[in-house]
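In response to reviewer comment 3 from the previous cycle, which asked for concrete evidence that the modeling workflow produces usable outputs, we include below a single protein chain processed end to end. The sequence was submitted unchanged, and the resulting structure tokens are shown without manual editing.
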Amino acid sequence: MAEGRGKWCKLEVAIEGDGLSPRDVNVRHLAELLQATAAAVDAVALEEGVDPPELRLVEIRTGSAAYDLLSQHPDAPRVFRGFYNAAKTRGKKNGAPVRHALARMHHSSRIGSIRIVPRDAKGAPRAKPVHLAPPLEEVAATFEAATEVHGRVTGVILGRGEKTVVRLRIDGGGTDDFVADASVAESAARLFGRNVTATVTYEIGADSEVAGHIECVTEWDGADLFDALRDARDELADSGVEIDVGAWLDELDEAARD
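The workflow returned the following structure tokens.
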């Protein structure tokens, strides 16, 4: 069917079911369906970057619970096409506001499935009917990143299914639990309470960072040196002497070269 600018000016929204008619639909349920439909059309319009078209209920079809919504807004055909495509693809290419609006619309039907048909001004269908299904859930993209951390072993915990967890208190703040195989867990247990270097993984998401596995753990030989430097810095600070750490390290490097 050809799609023209003036041909998609109506939307038929129907509740399908055996023997259903408009009198079978509770007024509250009808109001909920129409409000949800208007919210979904508005969400599509905002995603398209145009003003939401004003919708008017112009016809209730006998013989089924079908309702025709009309808009004379110049951008209505574009918005109706976007709404129809969003319903057809279950919001696959749409943002969260559109998917949430489609979910609300889907839940608003209590006694049957929702059918959507775009129509022209004379009521002729302009595309095949679409039966609204729940929108696709968005799966957040994540990736695994490996890194080396310094910290202290504070626990080795045997969990369900023989899964062992090594708990590290990370230098710089925080405590994370990492899944370990038997050999790594055994090494961590021998280093309990000591400063260690560990190779670990994290699952990185858009707004999250979750501890994954610990691949190896060894005692951190440089821990004593850094502890001594921290103690010296703290003692000098207590005496009122402020240390420029960068300058201090530069002086140490120069002394080592001499």
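Confidence is low (pLDDT under 50) at residues 1-6. We consider this sufficient to address the reviewer's concern, and the full set will be provided in the supplementary archive.
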